[in-house]
Amino acid sequence: MMGVESVPRYWRERRYRYRLIGSECKKCRKRYYPPRKVCLNCGSRELVEVKLAETGKVISYTVIRVLPREFQGLEPYVIALIELDDGTRLLSQLTDVDPEEVSTGIRVVATFRRIKEQSKDGIIEYGIKFKPI
Amino acid sequence: MKVLKTAADVGIVGYGAYIPRYRIKDAEIARVWGRTRVPIKEKAVAGPDEDTVTMSVEASKYALKRAMIDPKEIGAVFIGTESPSYAVKPSATIIAEAIGDSEKILAVDMEFACRAGNTAMQNVIGLVASGMINYGLAIGADVAQGRPGDELEFTAASGAAAFIIGKGKRSLAIFEGSSSYATDTPDFWRREGEYYPRHFYRFTGAPAYFKHIIEAGKMLMNELGLKPSDFNYVVFHQPNIKFPLRACKMLGFSAEQIKPGLLVDLIGNTYAGSSLIGLAATLDIAKPGERILVISFGSGAGSDAFSIVVTELIEEKRRRAPLVSELINRKKYIDYAFYAKFRGKIRTR
Amino acid sequence: MRKVFVIGTGLTKIGEHWDRSLRDLITEAILAAVDDAAVEVKNIEAIYIGNMSSGYLQGQEHLGSLVATWLGIPGVAACKIEAACASGGAAFHQAYLAVASGQYDCVIASGVEKMTDAVTSDVTSALIMADDQEYVAYTGATFVGLNALVYRHYMEKYGVKQEKIAAFSVHCHKYAKYNPYAQFRREVTLEEVLRSPMIADPIHLLEAAPIGDGAAAVMLCSEDFLNKLKLEKKVEVIASTLATDAFSLYDREDITTLRATRIAAEKAYRMAKVSPKDIDVLEVHDAFSILGVIHLEDLGFAKKGEGWKLVEEGELEVDGSIPTNLFGGLKARGHPVGATGIYQIVEVAWQLQGKASKCQVDNAELGLAQSVGGVGGTVVINILKRVR
User: Fold this and answer.
1) Per-residue confidence at C336, pLDDT binned at 50, 70, 90?
2) Smallest Cβ distance to A112: which of B21, B57, B349?
3) Where are chain A's structural domains?
4) For chain C, which domains are there?
5) Which pLDDT belongs to residue B1?
6) How confident is the model at residue A3 (pLDDT cuts 50, 70, 90)?
7) Fold agreement between B10-171 and B173-314
8) A73 touches chain B (CB under 8 A)
9) Are the Cβ atoms of A14 and B97 closer than 8 angstroms?
10) Is the pLDDT of residue A1 over 60?
């Protein structure tokens, strides 16, 4: 998370980041992550928070080798576009897997991991990554 | 206090363990530091995106799967560790939020070296037994840091175990009783600002590990009127292979009884996770009616002994989450360079 | 809406300008445009400055007032326009509207980016600000990584081998050697491209636009202004459109197409009353080789999944059916993020004025410049016409 170090910016998202809470449109049932206020599909403003599926499959992936400052030292890691079993699409990092073991279509499950530190003496940020099932 | 017995049945409603994927062979550590003898075969190493909190969350989620309760029913979260993510800021609150518990909870971080998870368990048993809460979560977890080149580096490992404790009727195992024994015995410690702990080598044996484990074990068996042959299994805190095997003999137990819960050779000493992961592994194979003795040891020093009897619910519940053996078999070997990198032993600033 | 004309262009070479600051670069480019138009600074009534990261990399905001002051004309209308990597195109779009609306007669559309003030990891952090900070940047994704997701999906969906797409970079370098303002002026071979290190699999270093500093500016004016100062009409802006798409890849149905390109292009073709086959010269936003290929498809020059054929069949060459990126494109000419959209306009304007020397397309009448922000979150299409 770039910009200046901020505790509130991280804190207000934690529920969504720790537990894959997204939103579902009451009208057309489409699901989103992150949660939002207006449905992209039908324009409705009636969206409710919903716990999303924790398993899904990889639609596309890449291996990040040149990193932004806040992730340095963790390379290489895999970033994937994932489609959860309830249809929600999201972007996430894959963990507990070597880049060579990843291919399009593999099934993955959400896992709670340490994402990064804001700085050596700043807060630790946690969130969800995905690992192969 | 000789034995803690609860008025009504309190037991384990769900349990879960977590062992990270990475392993380093002791032979590899020995290669770097020019040693020939090693205490165990290999140990588990937390990955760069893992820590005590993340491992605790995974173990707790497995425990919830077995408990089959809504996380919001958990009234207290106690985590015992000597390697919390922050020096000051509770891990218990992060874990509670990550598993979906409500805010109306008692969240506590505790420290007592390698028995911290067991002391957490003692506390939660009390809260449930008194009726103050319906369910409580007790976790023992550590990312143990071994001083490079020191003998403890060969065993200091990472792992977590979580136990959801509640009233007897939903339990897969019941607590018959427990006892605790503690003295001021500084066998292993870490001062403020120091990165690695220190220990006093052979002093950690007789006056520390053995003294407290034997006293706690004997005390509990005496008070409950039980002999080693009344137990099917015994699980000890496992800093290496020799100590638990000797304690086993000293207390009059057999090699068969200790086998299912003796994992240190393959995963190392997971500190606050050690005896509890051993307990989880034993629950993975125990049959209804069987009795387990678990004795922890935490440096500084103290031991808790628990007598646990397995119920009919064990068969159906244990299948709902990964077995410890599956977690042990999920492994990827790393060399000392990656181990040092993952565990932050290489200075980059 | 009134007619709008381009009457002057100015630009700096793109590269690592250690001794020149952001304000040095933008001032140089704008003054050059003023001189090229043969008018005076005091004729300028409004200035639009495209820039993405001055706040993050230089700690400098409020570029409008800064630039107006540095040009010696505080008092005029001026502001920064930001649309990630489409900032330059968006600044041009604003400048176009300013004149077309009738309120201003002579304006500057410019862009500047000073990327080498920061180390690469900080520039990498700056670039991912083009996507969702909280749920994309947060995962550790980089801007290159997002384009890599598109690249892999494209190859798997259409069964296209990487060499076919990487060839786009080779094409860009071939022409950049004639461009004295380009950051890289040597040719590269396909082998070199595919052997260069991976930045985010499958994107190789030589398939990605470089980091560099630069500024460019064009002067736009009304017909009244031209007539009053007795200036020659050379290039007219006959369409300028801007469209957005779903911000992040996970909100898109098909990540191998940029909906914003299709929306903006369709509107632009309609405004200009032309179709793709009428375009004589093209500048596409090839931040990565895969984007170059996808843009050709979304702009209507090839069917989906076949954009790479235009490269292979030589159609993008100076004598091909759709001469493209003849000054090196983002890959070789360079991509000082906020300035790129303006560099493209300058290049199209030169083609239409016969100033492209070795890369001159015969009888270039119509040119199209496409500026893209993020992975197509914003697309600006500008169509220019030669005035006879």
Assistant:
1) very high
2) B57
3) 7-132
4) 4-119+211-235 (3.40.47.10), 130-208+237-386 (3.40.47.10)
5) 64
6) confident
7) yes
8) yes
9) yes
10) no
Confidence of residue A2 (pLDDT cuts 50, 70, 90): low
- What pLDDT, in 10s, does the model give residues C120-148? 999 999 999 999 999 999 999 999 999 99
What is the reported pLDDT for C388?
85
Neighbours of chain C (3+ CB pairs under 8 A): A
Q: What is the pTM of this model?
A: 0.94
Can the peptide bond before residue B197 be classed as cis, meaning omega within 30 degrees of 0? no
Strand partners, B80: B110, B140
Question: Could you say which of 2.40.50.840, 3.40.50.920, 1.20.1330.10, 3.40.50.1820 is the CATH number of the domain covering A7-132?
Answer: 2.40.50.840
**Residue C65 burial (CB count, 10 A):** 14
Q: What is the pLDDT of residues B140-165, one digit of tens each?
A: 999 998 899 999 999 999 999 999 99
SS3 C73: coil
Q: Which fold has domain B173-314?
A: Peroxisomal Thiolase; Chain A, domain 1 (3.40.47)
Structure tokens at A122: 């700043």
Name the B residues in 25-64 with CB < 8 Å from any A CB: 47-51, 53-54, 57-58, 61
Catalytic residue among B42, B58, B82, B176: B82
Which residue is closest to A71 within chain C, CA to CA? C140
Q: In chain B, where are the structural domains located?
A: 10-171, 173-314
Residues contacting residue B192 through CB under 8 Å, at least 6 positions apart: none
Q: How many residues appear in chain B?
A: 349
Return phi, psi of residue C118, to 5°. Answer: -120, 160
pLDDT of residue B5: 81
CA distance C388 to C385: 9
Structure confidence at residue B65 as a pLDDT band (50, 70, 90): very high
Chain A residues near residue B100 by CB distance under 8 angstroms: 19
| DSSP one-letter code for C361 | P
| Measured distance CA(B60)–CA(A55) in Å, rounded | 18
Q: What is B10-171's CATH number?
A: 3.40.47.10
> Stretch A25-38: mean pLDDT, rounded?
96
